[in-house]
């Protein structure tokens, strides 16, 4: 009789310990959800995942619109296209900076159908610094000069397709007739697929700017965007793609991590993080010519 009592106390004790362990494990796995998974999963983790799946899946889906990609290390230096757009609108006077909305939509749909993954600036930095990528085919879609039509036309198309875009703003031109306002930048920033970078304050040719003038342009535009959007602006897109041997050092000192040029070709860390090539997309592309242009 006494032995039976001892056994039942022991069983109760073990059950309690088991329950505490289970709670600790499930708490940890919830906390580590957003971190890259390095931990090898124990049996207990698997049990927790399976048992909690039906109740938590809807909340997880709401928080994470896109599935977390699996990053794969590459044996050879990764090269990828950074697309450069300006106006997304009907062509005016044959100006090659314009791409009509239907062409832009065709191009983004072609990328999507071909399995391209669109990068954020942070993801592009990770690709270039660790030589690993989140998908077999990757692309970074960028817009220069901060035109209103890029927000009004390109953003809805990208959002509908679940694709990311980065917009490079001339902070001294905000609120002009055809350029975005502060409020529009906030609208961009509020969309989790969109990001905002600097295209300087006044769009000078940095190749021929003094170090002092270039630093002013780099620092002031970053400060403006950082304050307005509560971010750490990490990418500088050089006006007209022009820069000199000093520019990379000045940009890095100003707090940037990547610099974009207009030099044609695929982007690669081999060129340096502050001298990244881009692929200019002009109007008049067919799906076939567009895919050839980006090296697909
Ligand atoms: Zn520009």
UniProtKB/TrEMBL annotation:
<feature type="compositionally biased region" description="Basic and acidic residues">
    <location>
        <begin position="61"/>
        <end position="70"/>
    </location>
</feature>
<protein>
    <recommendedName>
        <fullName>NodB homology domain-containing protein</fullName>
    </recommendedName>
</protein>
<dbReference type="InterPro" id="IPR051398">
    <property type="entry name" value="Polysacch_Deacetylase"/>
</dbReference>
<dbReference type="GO" id="GO:0005975">
    <property type="term" value="P:carbohydrate metabolic process"/>
</dbReference>
<dbReference type="InterPro" id="IPR002509">
    <property type="entry name" value="NODB_dom"/>
</dbReference>
<dbReference type="GO" id="GO:0005576">
    <property type="term" value="C:extracellular region"/>
</dbReference>
<feature type="domain" description="NodB homology">
    <location>
        <begin position="137"/>
        <end position="296"/>
    </location>
</feature>
<dbReference type="Pfam" id="PF01522">
    <property type="entry name" value="Polysacc_deac_1"/>
</dbReference>
<keyword id="KW-0732">Signal</keyword>
<feature type="region of interest" description="Disordered">
    <location>
        <begin position="33"/>
        <end position="70"/>
    </location>
</feature>
<dbReference type="InterPro" id="IPR011330">
    <property type="entry name" value="Glyco_hydro/deAcase_b/a-brl"/>
</dbReference>
<dbReference type="GO" id="GO:0016810">
    <property type="term" value="F:hydrolase activity, acting on carbon-nitrogen (but not peptide) bonds"/>
</dbReference>
């Amino acid at each position: 009789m006494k032995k039976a009592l001892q056994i039942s106390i022991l069983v109760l004790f073990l059950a309690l310990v088991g329950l505490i362990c289970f709670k600790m494990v499930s708490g940890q796995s919830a906390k580590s959800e957003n971190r890259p998974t390095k931990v090898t999963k124990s049996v207990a983790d698997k049990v927790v995942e399976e048992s909690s799946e039906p109740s938590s899946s809807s909340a997880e889906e709401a928080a994470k619109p896109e599935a977390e990609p699996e990053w794969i290390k590459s044996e050879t230096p990764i090269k990828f296209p950074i697309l450069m757009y300006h106006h997304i609108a009907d062509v005016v006077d044959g100006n090659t900076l314009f791409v009509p909305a239907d062409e832009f939509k065709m191009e983004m749909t072609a990328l999507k159908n071909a399995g391209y993954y669109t990068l954020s600036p942070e993801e592009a930095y990770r690709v270039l610094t660790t030589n690993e990528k989140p998908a077999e085919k990757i692309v970074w879609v960028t817009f220069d000069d901060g035109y209103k039509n890029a927000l009004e036309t390109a953003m809805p198309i990208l959002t509908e397709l679940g694709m990311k875009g980065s917009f490079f703003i001339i902070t001294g031109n905000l609120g002009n007739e055809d350029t975005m306002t502060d409020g529009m930048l906030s609208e961009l920033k509020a969309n989790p697929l969109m990001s905002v970078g600097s295209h300087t304050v006044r769009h000078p040719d940095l190749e021929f700017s003094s170090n002092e003038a270039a630093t002013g342009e780099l620092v002031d535009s970053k400060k403006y965007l950082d304050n307005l959007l509560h971010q750490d602006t990490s990418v500088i897109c050089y006006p007209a793609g022009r820069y000199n041997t000093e520019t990379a050092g000045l940009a890095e000192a100003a707090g940037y991590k990547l610099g974009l040029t207009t030099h044609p070709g695929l982007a690669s860390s081999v060129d340096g993080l502050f001298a990244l090539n881009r692929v200019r997309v002009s109007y008049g592309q067919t799906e076939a010519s567009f895919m050839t242009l980006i090296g697909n």
